[in-house]
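Journal club side-thread
Mid-discussion, someone asked how the predicted structure for our own chain would compare to the paper's figures. Pasting it here so we can look after the session.
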Amino acid sequence: MTQRCDVERALRASAPHALVDTLRAVLTESYGALGVQLLLADYGATALTPFGAPATPGASVPVANSVEGRVFGSQEPRRQVRQGEVVEHHLPVSVRGERTGILTVRLPVERSVPHTVDDLVYAAELLGHELLVAERDTDVYQRARRISRLTLAAEMQWQLLPARACSAAEYAIGAQLEPAYAIHGDNYDWASDAHELTLSVTDGMGTGVNASLLTHLAVNALRNARRAGIGIADQAALADQALYAQYRGRAHVSSLLLRFDLTTGRVQAVDAGSPQLWRMRGKTVELIDLDPQMPLGMFEETQYVAKEFEVLPGDRLLIVSDGVYAALSPQGEAYAQRALARALHASMLLPAATVPRAVLRHLSEFRAAEPLDDSLVLCVDWFGKP
């Protein structure tokens, strides 16, 4: 316990940019660590990049087909014996379902005992929380996550997002945007309290910075209305007014708003545009009809109506943008026609956090050409009230 307290005190007292150096020093002193390395997941969740290593093409470890990648996917610690005398421990670094990366700690084989491993798992969890706080004050971790340069539009969009995953007793969420380094107008947002979960998926028309600016206004208008404690129909109406006041109908934002009652599983939905909502219940995959209404900002003072449906424990919901469901195969078949259901069946055993990446990988193999539009996939696994 004393050693755990030493790690916690050291990380809390560390300068934001020096967390890894601080952790390396305390693990070396307290546990005899021979090496400590942090690998951070990149924006596309396809590679793990060593923090502090030179930005070279061969520095990153692929998430697919690597020990570190398997730990990242399973979120379970794993050990490797090196030359019989050194044991490498690969430990997941995450915060409330958001997968940040992998902490690798090298120990002498005689020090690699169960209670030490438990302490290292605890240290990795602490590091995840401290990284989240540190990113308010330093750019070093965000720089390390990039295997190529973000466009300005993508920079704006990633800074607007809450995270790529979130979990609670009642639900688990995972989301991913592509192309990760050049996204334009697609976005998602969520917030929860003791009684409800609110989700929104938005798609600002256009490309580049103009689409990002439009989406920024829409997302912040929805947040402002949500934080005022009003219903999602009124949230949509107020965001619609804000967009119309700025653009006078010249630009609009397609949106899908969902509010989950955590106790009953009842869901209110406002479908204001193009995002589609699919449900997998058992082995049945179906598109949920939500009575589409006008996109936000298209007309002055549009009135929105929320439609209700119910989710049951074990349901999986998938929200996809038009860059996903409307993508065409070489034969001209839309992805939503049959391939989307196949992708859901193929990924049914994966946790929500990794489903979007799997669907987008399946999509890239399906479509005929490089996409002209963003692709967004958001997955919600519903467990219900414990």
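Post-session note: The first strand starts at residue 35 and ends at 41.
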